[in-house]
Amino acid sequence: MARTSPDPADLLAVGELLTDEERLIRDTVRKFADEKIRPYVGDWFDRGVFPAKELAPELGELGVLGMHLDGYGCAGSTAVEYGVACMELEAADSGLRSFVSVQGSLAMRSIHAFGSEEQKQRWLPELAAGRAIGCFGLTEPDFGSDPANMRTRARRKGADWVLSGTKMWITNGSISDVAVIWAQTEDGVRGFLVERGTPGFSATDVHGKLSLRASVTSELVMDEVVLPADAVLPGVRGLRGPLSSLGEARYGILWGTVGAARDCYTTALDYAKTRIQFERPIAAFQLTQQKLVEMMLEVEKSYLVAHRIGRLKDAGQCGPAHISFGKLNNVRTAIEVARTARTILGANGITVEYPVLRHANNLESVLTYEGTSEIHTLVLGETITGESAYR
């Protein structure tokens, strides 16, 4: 059998471990990102905008919104299929993958897992098609890693609920048609569906961001918001609800960051082959080759980690520690790859003409949202020692 030349973007041919359907999804999402996102995202990042309303129906038609859920217009994809889609979305920009993750793994998944049949019928088909946008309100100005102490409260008033509090750093917040808001009640933490335009509910965008600029980030304020009894998600009480949805979103992150890292590595590789210094392409210099090799090694290892966790998830054997392993390893690896790639591009690397510093800036947010490195370290520490070190 004739030997084929290895692919510099996937030297171990990890992609060959994917099924035909998984490769088809990967290639389809990659084509969408290349045509619809990549030519414009540098400008969006520069201007601090994200055309979510225009892109949402296209993402719905692509089939990636809530793709890993069953029924109600959702594709019922496998975990690995969802993972490779996240990888290709984040190869274009973390903000794009964040939009899809929040819509599908947080807002839609919470309704799908814990909502009433009426809530599912009302919202899931609209969200899956991108005709509606959702957000997920858990984090507060003073409580991120410690949601058990959230200050948002919901109290009963006759048959209704009255909701008060503030949520912060909420992706899609100001453009959402429905917000899944988690609040303390007499019966523990409960989830509530708050529709756009509900009196007392407001959303203000966060400006001045240096990261995730091509993404909508908002503060949500609930000022004595009166909600009917059927606004509550009936299927869960306690933090198990929001934390289980966060686990789904973190799973998408551990795949997505492989795409960001790969994009930085291949950008640096292509640049090094054409950038001439001292009458030679800089790819011919030993120090540059070392950087490229180190980046390639880390991208491939992260890809293998994501693939293994995806297979465990599809087999029903993936636990929180596996998700923490993947997010902790793959995000910090991607940041280092992005920073190294920037050094190869030199001054060109700090412009929006190239994606590497945009990826690096975005990954600084990905590092801490939906579970900081410190929290994931403690999850893994407790797993291997049997001792909890949170308090």
Automatic annotation (TrEMBL):
Domain Acyl-CoA dehydrogenase/oxidase C-terminal residues, every copy: 237-383
The Acyl-CoA oxidase/dehydrogenase middle domain, residue ranges: 135-225
UniProt entry keywords in alphabetical sequence: FAD, Flavoprotein, Oxidoreductase, Transit peptide
Leading EC class: oxidoreductase
Span of domain Acyl-CoA dehydrogenase/oxidase N-terminal: 19-130
Cofactor(s), names only, from the UniProt record: FAD
InterPro entries for this protein: Acyl-CoA_Oxase/DH_mid-dom (IPR006091), Acyl-CoA_Oxase/DH_mid-dom_sf (IPR046373), AcylCo_DH-like_C (IPR036250), AcylCo_DH/oxidase_C (IPR009075), AcylCoA_DH/ox_N (IPR013786), AcylCoA_DH/ox_N_sf (IPR037069), AcylCoA_DH/oxidase_NM_dom_sf (IPR009100), Glutaryl-CoA_DH_mitochondrial (IPR052033)
GO terms, molecular function: fatty-acyl-CoA binding; flavin adenine dinucleotide binding; glutaryl-CoA dehydrogenase activity
Pfam families in the record: Acyl-CoA_dh_1, Acyl-CoA_dh_M, Acyl-CoA_dh_N
Family annotation (Gene3D superfamilies): Acyl-CoA dehydrogenase/oxidase, N-terminal domain (1.10.540.10), Butyryl-CoA Dehydrogenase, subunit A, domain 2 (2.40.110.10), Butyryl-CoA Dehydrogenase, subunit A, domain 3 (1.20.140.10)
EC number: 1.3.8.6
Gene Ontology BP annotations: fatty acid beta-oxidation using acyl-CoA dehydrogenase; fatty-acyl-CoA biosynthetic process
Family statement drawn from the similarity comment of this UniProt entry: Belongs to the acyl-CoA dehydrogenase family.
Stated name of the protein: Glutaryl-CoA dehydrogenase
Species this protein is from: Kitasatospora gansuensis
